[in-house]
C-alpha cells in the first residue's frame, strides 16, 4: 500500500574540506595517518586524530613532523558525517629527522591497575574510578561536538545497545556500570554532558550509565594511561583516538578495545562473564 511506504532516504553527498597539519605517525596496516591539524572551518576544531587515506601508497612518503596540506572528503547525508578520507596530500615542509611527539602513550594491558582518576559527572557530582570497584566498569572516551558519525557517536550508540542488553539481566545490571568520559573539559560541562547523555541513553536516569569529565589538570594523565593518542607540542589541540576499556571488579584492565571495530554484543558478553565471576 502506498501509505505504508517509507519516505525515500536522501542521497549522501561528499563534502570537501581543506586540511593543514603536522604528521604525528603513519599506520600503513590501517591506511591511516595521525595528524595534529589546525581547525577545519565549518567542520572541526583543532585536533589530533587518525584519518584514513584514499591512497595508502602515499604513506611511504610521509614522516613524523612533516607539515602537509590535504583535502578531506567526508560523506554527508544531511544529518551525519562519516567515512572521512584524506586525499591530495602535499608535504609543504619536511620534519626534522629526529622529530618525536611530545609523548607517546602506553597501551592498556590486561592486569594494569587503573588509576583513581577524579571526575565530575553529568549532575555536577564529584566521582572517582575506585568507587566502582566491586562492579565491572566499561569506560569509553568521547567529546560531544564530534562531527564524525563513526567516531564518538558510534561509541555512544554502542554503549546504548550495551546498556539495553545488560538491563535485561538483573545480575549483570547490578554488577556492572558504564562511564562515558569527555576529553574536552573546556566545552563539555556537566550540563552539556547531561543533555548529550539524555539523547543517547534515552532517559534521565544515569544510575547505570554516567557521563563525566576530568579536571583539565587530570586530562593528560588520563589520556596517557588510556592511550588516547599523542600530545601536541603546544598542548592546545584535542587528542582524538578511540579507546574503550573493560575494568574488572578489582579495578584492573580486563579488556582493551582500541578503534571502533568492536561490537556491542561482544563487549556485553564479556561484561556479563566478568560480572558472574567470583
What CATH calls the topology of the largest domain is Glutaredoxin
Query: Could you give a short account of the major beta sheet?
Result: 7 strands, mixed
Mean pLDDT: 90
Beta content: 25-35%
Disulfide bonds: 146-152
Domain Thioredoxin: 108-276
GO molecular function, one term: metal ion binding
Family: Belongs to the SCO1/2 family.
Structural description of this entry:
- With 278 residues, this protein is of the alpha/beta class.
- The chain folds into two domains: 10-93, OB fold (Dihydrolipoamide Acetyltransferase, E2P); 118-276, Glutaredoxin, CATH 3.40.30.
- Helices cover 20% and strands 33% of the residues.
- It contains five helices and 13 strands.
- The chain has helices spanning 152-167, 170-174, 190-201, 216-225, 264-276; strands spanning 13-27, 32-37, 47-53, 67-76, 81-93, 118-121, 126-128, 136-142, 176-182, 209-214, 238-239, 243-247, 253-258.
- The chain has a seven-stranded mixed beta sheet with strand order 7-6-10-9-8-12-13. Strands 1-2-3-5-4 form a five-stranded mixed β-barrel.
- Strand 6 and strand 7 (126-128) form a beta hairpin.
- Helix 1 crosses helix 5 (264-276).
- The longest helix is centred in the middle third of the chain and has 16 residues, at 152-167.
- It is globular.
- The N and C termini lie far apart (56 Å).
- Residues 1-6 have low confidence and may be disordered.
Core attributes:
disulfide bond; CusF_Ec; Redoxin domain-containing protein; metal ion binding; 278 residues; alpha/beta; OB fold (Dihydrolipoamide Acetyltransferase, E2P); SCO1/SenC
